[in-house]
Amino acid sequence: MEHDNNTPVFEMRNVSKVYHMGEVSVHALHDVSLTIEAGELLVILGASGSGKSTLLNILGGLDVPTSGSVLYRGRDMTQADDRTLTAFRRASVGFVFQFYNIIPSLTAIENVRLVTDIADDPMDAREALRHVGLEDRMDHFPAQLSGGEQQRVAIARAIAKRPDVLLCDEPTGALDFQTGVLVLEVIDRIHRELGATVALITHNASIADMADRVIRMRSGQIVDVYAPPVRRTPAELAW
């Protein structure tokens, strides 16, 4: 689907999120406003509990704000019904999580085909796996793959439906340094070659230098927004 790249991909306007657990109210986001431009690689940085995952889940239609609005390419998604949100998640958003969420009983290519079988205009599953450097591991089961390879299968699955947006929640959190660099290189390449808008959340400040722009969060609020003075490749990051 063609998009007007002059329109921001996302606009969050005064978004708050409160979770009620019995008599306790947890304020996960406080009056957050944020614009994400088309083709941007955004890193959302903050400690555990800062609101990063809540923000990402609201952007991706996995959660809804308590107040405020979220626009996706000019359309107010906070007014959307469940069917519309499901279609949005299915067609427009690719998710990558810290834990890979791939099915142990399926091979790498079968895991990717779970998405290509339901997407409107998917890339071939083999092509998606080639994008992440796993052309020689397509028929392997997750137990036969390293952690980094499993994460790359998850990325291949996310990009196979040609999403407009790739949302990554601590994608290197369960990986060692060298493997984490490989995974970040894949995400960076997907961003450049496929033109996807990428939002990546992390608690690791070193990763911020690969971004076009960095959002720093604390206690459910955005406390800083900046562009790294020098943008670095994942291999150049000083972890």
Stretches where pLDDT is under 50 for at least 5 consecutive residues are: none
User: How much β-strand is present in the residues?
Assistant: 25-35%
Distance between the termini: 37 Å
Please tell me what the overall shape is: globular
> What is the highest CATH level, the class?
Alpha Beta
Q: How would you write the strand order of the largest sheet? A: 6-7-8-3-9-10
Structural class: alpha/beta
Number of helices: 6
What's the mean pLDDT score? 90
Estimate the helix proportion, in percent: 25-40%
Radius of gyration: 17 Å
Order of helices and strands: EEEHEEHEHHHEHEEE
Which second-level CATH architecture applies?
3-Layer(aba) Sandwich
Specify the CATH homologous superfamily.
Answer: P-loop containing nucleotide triphosphate hydrolases
What is the fold named in CATH at topology level?
Rossmann fold
**How many distinct domains?**
1
